[in-house]
Amino acid sequence: MTAAATALLLAFPVSAAARERDVPSPGPLPAGAQLGQFDSTVLQSDAGAMRTARAAGPAPRRYATPDGYSVAVEASSDYPVDPVADQKLVDFLASRVHGAELGDLSVYVGTPKEISQLCGGDPEVVACYAIDQGRMYVPGESVRGIPVEYPLTHEYGHHVASRRSNSPWDALDWGAKYWSSAMRICSGVRSHLLFPGNQGAHYWDDPGEGFADGYAHMHYPEAPWYYNQLLRPNAKAFTAIQRDVLHPWTGPRSRTFHGRLGRRKRIRTFHIRLTLDGDVRLALAAPRGAVYEVAAETRGFAAGQRLRDSGEFGVEWCRRRPVDEIELTVRRRAGSGPFTLRVSWPG
Predict the structure, then answer these.
(1) Is the pTM of this model over 0.85?
(2) Which of 162, 165, 271, 295 is deepest in the core (most CB within 10 A)?
């Protein structure tokens, strides 16, 4: 034990009647673990009861990870101050597949009953995540046979999503970009089979929860799956999650095309390949007075607009197949002259 940890224990002596925390351990789940259904909740911000509970316990302390990050940990006043357990919790989180978002994390450890109350009062809820604070509220003991390792890993999946982009959608609701595209979340939403951000009647159909539990299943593939079968992870999903964590999507690709239209050349055609779902944006610069029609088309879907002089528009694009080959056309309707077409797409 470090000198700092020893000093902290002396400052807050352990009561003989104090309850003990379960210390999470990397590796397989403990023998006899019973992973029944449980709910998790995502909140925008710490509620008043959460702030009160945190104020009643010792101040948060930061603990280092082997790869140079640090995580703030605080525990309920129902538990004794235990810097050794805090450090082991942080070591466990560092054993999860992670990126720089680990250094933005805070953790509050409470008793199972306290966590259920703080996370909204539903007895089925065993943990939750507060977006604005980047804070996980997790139980310090197993809940209905569910070991602490599993909700810790599930909530960390939410933390990953909170630090990722899936523009034009919210990664916390839709999952991160590569996973969301691999699992065809956009198509599921349009078919009214998936419901992003729905923490109520469609909780089990929420892609945000599917991403978080897919992240947990990446570490515990033997765990049962309770969410919508469209969200059930497979090898493709695990590969996408790994990429979302370690090499996240940073923004759209772009390309600029040039051409000229007139009486002899009334149409120009270009091509892009779409491997991710998201916004396809087309911006045209054309001569004053010219009316050019700009369109994007793939087998089974097309979108376009007539633009005078210059203009732009966007299309929320859900791929029809793993790779959509998109044909871009600029067609002369009136006027003539050179044009520039700038296109951006997710990838």
Answers:
(1) yes
(2) 162
